[in-house]
Design brief:
homodimer, 147 residues, alpha/beta, CBS-domain, three-stranded mixed beta sheet, 44% helix, globular, CBS domain (chains A, B)
């Protein structure tokens, strides 16, 4: 069993998309993460759900739990709507050491190891400069765990 | 909106449970992660799905992508079944700096920041020495992202 047997079409966002659109995609389609693509449709970043969520939380609240406690609900709403003007490009973290991107011949063990190393429940599959789709952690688990 | 309004019952595993049981729970119930509890039912570890997956991949395959490529399917099966004798305790990583555990009064921003910092799409909610349930990233996103 290889990546080609496990992959499925997966929605993408461009780096120029509004952050709020990325968050909406994640929420509505119940996705484990997002694939951010360049103008050629190739992955420039793969974000785990927790990283997309981080885009919606001000930096100072991520660092200081006490501050996040005292911010009341109205303020929280304000933060979320203040995202309206920001794009994914502005919010994506600096390029990590390794992106969870592989080719269709990747083995089950490679996929699992890649997800574990990058802590991303989503691997993009690229062949000859074209994004074929993605393998999700759930798709992988469903196939490899004996029921 | 606070953690108490977003939490739901969530299955747990004990540290003595076989790793394969933990993997099966994750796969069958489509969970974003697992709550590992002690004998008193209190969380000792919260594992993201990618961390549970890591339990099923031999260390040398996680570190060396080239090795994972050459391991063929039969060997992969052997690795998975070789887990049969291992317990969650043996596989859980050393205690991290911070566990995604909070109390029922945590705000939406606190929950989001905690998930982002710990990169775990799951926060356990504890009150007076009792596990009340968990807030998942999806439950949080569904409530805070305007549709």
């Amino acid at each position: 069993m290889r990546a080609r047997d496990l992959l499925a079409a997966f929605p993408t966002v461009t780096a120029d998309a509004p952050v709020i659109e990325a968050a909406r995609l994640l929420a509505e389609q119940d996705l484990p993460g997002l694939i951010v693509v360049d103008d050629d449709g190739l992955p420039v970043s793969i974000l785990a759900g927790t990283q997309v969520l981080a885009l919606a939380v001000p930096r100072y609240c991520q660092d200081d739990p006490a501050l996040a406690r005292v911010v009341d609900e109205k303020h929280a709403d304000a933060f979320l709507s203040s995202l309206a003007g920001r794009t994914v490009r502005q919010a994506v973290p600096p390029r990590p050491r390794e992106l969870p991107v592989t080719d269709p011949d990747a083995t089950v063990l490679e996929l699992a190891a890649l997800m574990a190393r990058t802590r991303t429940p989503l691997v993009a599959v690229v062949e000859q400069g074209r994004l074929l789709g993605a393998v999700t952690l759930q798709a992988l688990m469903d196939r490899v765990v004996p029921s």
